[in-house]
Design goal:
Number of helices: 2
Oligomer: single chain
Largest sheet: 5 strands, mixed
Low-confidence stretches: none
Strand order of the largest sheet: 1-5-3-4-2
Strand content: 25-35%
Shape: globular
């Protein structure tokens, strides 16, 4: 079972694997039908990887999801289809500053790149 944070709308795992080479490419297909800006479909097949989205935000979040999968599985990526669209207006992360031991600037520096890895769009 492929586990992703946050859990996408659907993940369908199939048999087989995509063997990641050092110079692999991802095919990007822009959808003509306008969906939510952040919606995407990620297709990992034995012969390649395709991302379908209607905006750059959708491509960005699909790429972040792909990075999560690669970081967990390495060079042998399971064949699967991931469909996702935000269920809320914001994909957020909130820090309780009264309990935080880091300053707001230190938190931003430490969490900024890590937060985008899990497809969060807003930090409050």
């Amino acid at each position: 079972m492929i586990r992703l944070i946050p859990q996408p709308l659907s993940v369908t795992e199939n048999t087989g694997a995509f063997v990641k080479a050092s110079d692999f490419t991802v095919t990007r297909k822009t959808l003509s039908v306008k969906q939510c800006d952040e919606s995407y479909s990620l297709y990992i097949k034995a012969d390649g990887i395709t991302i379908c989205a209607s905006s750059e935000k959708g491509f960005f979040y699909a790429e972040k999801t792909l990075e999560q999968i690669i970081s967990f599985y390495g060079d042998l990526i399971p064949v699967c289809t991931v469909n996702d669209s935000p269920r809320f207006e914001y994909r957020g992360f909130m820090i309780d500053w009264s309990a935080a031991v880091l300053t707001p600037i230190a938190c931003k520096e430490n969490f900024g790149s890590r937060i985008s890895m899990v497809t969060v769009s807003t930090v409050g």
